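Homework help board

Subject: predicted structure for assignment chain

Our instructor gave us this sequence and asked us to write out the predicted structure in token form, then describe one feature. I got the tokens but I'm not sure how to describe them. Can anyone check?
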Amino acid sequence: MYLCHTYGELFPQNPLFMKKLISTLIIITCILSGSDTHARNLWAFLNYTAFNSPEGPYIETYLSVAANSVKFIKKDNGKFQATVNVLMTFKQEKEIKAFKKYELTSEEIADTLNTNFNFIDQQRIAIPNGTYDFEIQLSDKNKSAAAMPYNQNITVDFPADKPAFSGIELVKSFTKAATPTVLTKSGYDLVPYTYTFYPDNESKIVFYSELYNMGKIGLQDQKFLLIYYIESFESNVKLGSYVRSKKETVKDVNVLLSEISIPNLPSGNYNLVVEARNQQNEIVCSKKLFFQRMNPTAQVALTDLGATEIGNTFAERITNADTLREYANSTYPIANGLEKAFIRVPLKRADVKTIQQFLYSFWLNRDQNNPERAFVTYKEQVYKVQVNFGTPVKKGYQTDRGRVYLQYGPPNTRSTQYNEPSNYPYEIWQYYTLNNNQSNKKFVFYSQDMVTSDFTLLHSDAIGEIINPRWKIDLRNRIYTTLDLQDTQVINAWGDMQNDYWELPN
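My token output:
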């Protein structure tokens, strides 16, 4: 049994899809249990949010289990029910500070062929400020497979003397609360949305957050702004069409329960951002939540580009259509979802002026003071990745190594191994910090094609990147194969260095 990051409905519930899983800030687990001869895989998804209260901070967890991945047992009343054992612990230096152990039961059903649903559970766990090693163990009570732990660090930080947001809870639906329950906050029953992935059949993001201590900074008699918006995850560029705001007066707890319509938000990686700003428009505090969108049919409006003035700019001086398209195409690794949607389709038929407007708008969004300097600096980086990572069939920025280099910059360490007896040629890159909010993140690239040397991304533990728990096995597929989809480890062979490079890159 092993655990991995995944999204609830992005991939079929089939372990063959695990090579293309995506990781996220929120813990989302896929648990594969296979000790029973005919056991199916247990699939579960866990999301969490931190809140504060007069009694102290607490973590709220939202657990969703796929009913078609667990075993249903017939009850005395003739109906069937599944049970999952859940154990959550919060540790500091191996000492348990809080825990929750319980059985999660599904609804009773009359027919075990009708299990195309998820059953959801919500828990609240009181826990003081601090950083914890959070561990969850899940197991199907009706199978013999043992539970395996999954760990992630969680920080709870609600200062007593300055404003702070709670986490951002994604909401599936909400109603006025008649009687308070575990789902109730601020007079509403909130049904949690347990994923951070929004497929194309989801047309809006509904969310809830709380703002504490605005009165601690002398704003009691003043209005302030609550602003919420969507930004590109890669570039942190705010998407103007998805910015909302409301004026607030200071309360003990200011509540934000709102939604953003997203039918035209293209596929991509994004942050949902909430901010509190004072009357001087200064950010008092903020909070971000990563999410992904899959919306391949989204239409990109070119009306905004038509209003972009390019007179006397660097973009106006570039008049060759092929050159302009190449410059636009090369921005794809750092483009946001809207920009990528333009590059994928409209760019191919756009006229020269439209491409000039796109190019200028792209770099103006990244450097208001000197967009041309940003353009020239990036062009130099594109040249570097072409020299170092270009192949006979791909330009440097089209390769995985080139994309990662352009998106995140040069790695702090780059461990290369091209001649190990057992493994395909591979590289492991390490970044001490990534996007200023991730620490010690690594990327594994490998090349199955010995001719073109096109190294593809095999695995990473960075947010928004492919995570593949079987990467060591896939790396050794040069000489080693296994039919057991639950294998994640290989026995070290002579000359293998992948474990050393992953743990301690040089």
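Reply (TA_rk): Your tokens look well-formed. For the description, you could write something like this. The chain has ten helices and 28 strands. That's the kind of observation they're looking for.
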